[in-house]
From TrEMBL:
Pfam families xrefs: HTH_3
Name of protein: Helix-turn-helix transcriptional regulator
SUPFAM superfamilies assigned: lambda repressor-like DNA-binding domains (SSF47413)
Source taxonomy: Bacteria, Bacillati, Actinomycetota, Actinomycetes, Mycobacteriales
Residues annotated as domain HTH cro/C1-type: 13-67
InterPro entries: Cro/C1-type_HTH, Lambda_DNA-bd_dom_sf
Length: 403
């Protein structure tokens, strides 16, 4: 699809539909959504949900970014520098199975481990600017370490490479570079397989399923996740920590696929399984999938939002306590979900307040999230007179076209 100055999903859905030669009714039938919803989205009377975007993108044979308009233009300053790192990431990810001749000598593994731990911290805190500064050179150095070591040292370097590929995925995904995010998942799967690390293997599976779900293929995601869990189920009785985290995380991703597919009971069943596993795990210390009781609570709100059940989402959010030290990446997502819930509920003031909370915790992540953009547009359309606070937030997000 051609790039447009109007980044609204409404405009892009209508354009893609017309290019495909479909009427609104035909699109609704093929995407298995209501004709009323197609009309409401195209006429800007309702925000597009992620489930709607995925279903429409799959039906029209376009990518999700074609519908959302991602990547959004970066804000001047540090954000421009973050986006500029993407070109280097593309080259680095293409060289994954090659030694790095540009690195004369790698640092000792303990020093590399400390540097990789910082990247992990940046990822969990949604610190895009710091991550982009350190990620690329460290990727090249750890890649060199992998190809120049053997045995246990090589396995250690591969595990570090898993974190760096995962952080690459996180950065690319949140900035809206879906193709690069997909490549990073492939590289993560490669490094995880080479290292034999069960949690990183499950993390690659988690993200692969997320890509299927985002693209509207919920049945494929559900089937793939079921196969992944069946392979690890025999090990659960031993209660190994990594297996519990993987098992619970894959159930959460299954819940998302079910919720997007409109199967609320199945989504809640997966949520219950994840909650029981989190209780068995007993803490929130997992630095990879952030799996634990708190993140299950965050996901419980998200799944209700995906099911368009605002009262349930808000009830779950009300009882959720976010402890000090919870990853800002997860807290930011939670506030975005709460904003969507308040919008569905009809409370525009609280919806905007939740968006401001997300901005305070994880600004860059909030600015470039397409559901934040949809929520802002919906709030603007619902206001007879644009209030300064809402207008300011829209401008901060980079929404300068017709709301």
């Amino acid at each position: 699809m051609t790039r447009m100055t109007d980044y609204a999903v409404a405009t892009r859905v209508a354009q893609a539909r017309k290019l495909a030669g479909l009427t609104q009714r035909q699109l609704a039938a093929r995407a298995n959504v209501s004709i009323g919803l197609v009309r409401a989205v195209e006429q800007r009377r309702a925000p597009a949900t992620q489930a709607f975007i995925g279903a429409v993108a799959k039906t029209l044979r376009v990518s999700v970014p074609d519908i959302t308009g991602q990547p959004f233009a970066p804000a001047p300053g540090q954000d421009t520098e973050v986006h500029a790192a993407v070109a280097g990431l593309r080259t680095e990810l293409a060289a994954y199975d090659l030694d790095n001749a540009a690195v004369a000598q790698t640092r000792p593994l303990p020093q590399l481990t400390a540097a990789v731990h910082r990247i992990c911290t940046y990822r969990r805190n949604a610190s895009f600017h710091r991550m982009s500064e350190e990620l690329l050179p460290l990727l090249g150095e750890v890649r060199a370490a992998v190809h120049r070591s053997t045995g246990h040292d090589r396995d250690q370097a591969l595990v570090m490479l898993c974190e760096l590929y995962y952080s690459s995925h996180s950065l690319a995904h949140k900035l809206g570079y879906a193709d690069l995010a997909g490549t990073a998942v492939d590289r993560l799967a490669w490094a995880a397989t080479k290292s034999g690390h069960p949690l990183w293997t499950a993390t690659a599976q988690f993200q692969r399923a997320a890509m299927l779900t985002s693209g509207g293929d919920w049945a494929a995601a559900a089937s793939f996740l079921e196969r992944c869990r069946s392979n690890m189920e025999p090990r659960l009785a031993a209660g190994q920590r990594n297996d519990l985290i993987a098992w619970g995380g894959l159930h959460l991703q299954s819940g998302l696929a079910a919720a997007r597919g409109g199967n609320r009971d199945t989504a809640n069943a997966h949520l219950s399984e994840a909650r029981e596993t989190a209780v068995r795990l007993g803490d929130d210390l997992d630095p990879v999938l952030s799996f634990g009781p708190t993140n299950v609570g965050i996901w419980s709100v998200a799944l209700s939002v995906e099911a368009m059940d605002a009262p349930e989402a808000l009830a779950r959010a009300k009882t959720l306590i976010l402890p000090p030290g919870a990853p800002k990446e997860r807290i930011g997502h939670h506030h975005m979900d709460v904003a969507r819930a308040w919008l569905l509920y009809g409370d525009r003031v609280r919806a905007l307040s939740a968006l401001q909370d997300a901005r305070l915790v994880a600004p860059a992540q909030t600015r470039y999230n397409p559901m934040v953009h949809e929520t802002v547009r919906a709030l603007a359309r619902a206001e007879a007179r644009k209030v300064d606070t809402l207008t300011g937030f829209a401008v901060w997000c980079g929404i300068t076209d017709r709301l």
